[in-house]
Amino acid sequence: MPITKPALPLLLLAAALALSGCRKTADEAPTGTAAEPTESAADAVAADEPKLPKVDWWAPIAPIVARSYEGACNAMPDMKATGPIVVGVDGSVKHDSYSGTLGQSDITIMRIMRNGAPTASLIAGNKDDVLTIMDAGSDQPGNAQLSTGGKGVSCSDVKNVLPFAGKTLYSIYAKAITVPARKVACLKLGEMTTTALNFELRNDQLKLADQVFDLRKAPTEQMIFKPSVGTIAAYAVLDDKRRATVMYDEFGRLSDVQMTVDGGDSYACGELNRPRT
Known about the structure:
Strand content: 35-45%
Order of helices and strands: HHHEEEEEEEEEEHEEEEEEEEE
Structural class: alpha+beta
Largest sheet: 15 strands, antiparallel
Number of helices: 4
Number of strands: 19
Radius of gyration: 21 Å
Distance between the termini: 31 Å
Helix content: 10-25%
Number of domains: 2
Low-confidence stretches: 1-49
């Protein structure tokens, strides 16, 4: 399930939202100085904008998730023995008479190192259907659960669940979340002055100002895709003192960066010259 982060990142998020609001206010015309654009004019502008493809979160993770989750499977709520949960390479989810798809679901994927061994979890679904897959790591059996309409199935003692095979979430989603070197507008915690800092996320490294992190050594990673609201979040615990969150829109365009450093400089940053929506 999603990580419960300490209060400090929440303060940074508030600062990021304030920063976004400041940018918007700064480039808006003062009240009464210009007429509001008509709906037809706005539609014409939207029609001229290039149609960007949305990030496909399923394709990169499909080889890891797609399979038959066979084990001790029991139907809920009566706990009668039943067949496995089957996830197809196309994102389909099937069990007995149930058939659904992960295609437009919100999803949270997490990888955590415990005692030197990777564990992983995936939660995907909508208000009606939820698929949960848990990997306990260290060659221990995992479990998969499908809940739909108050019913569902739970499979325990599932072998080889979520075989990441040493891959990090960044390496799996690098094509979608890589950010070339650029300037971002940042607020340092405790200050109200915006500073342009260097930021990049590529080649297994995250850099902000003079902070450099090797994502291959991150003990915790989390990816959150929310097609329902058009956002993507990449979160990492970089070591015992440093945490980072990078936010994107549904097209993979950088939105916000949060960096928390215990006992050091913490920042909330936004994209410079962010396109108006």
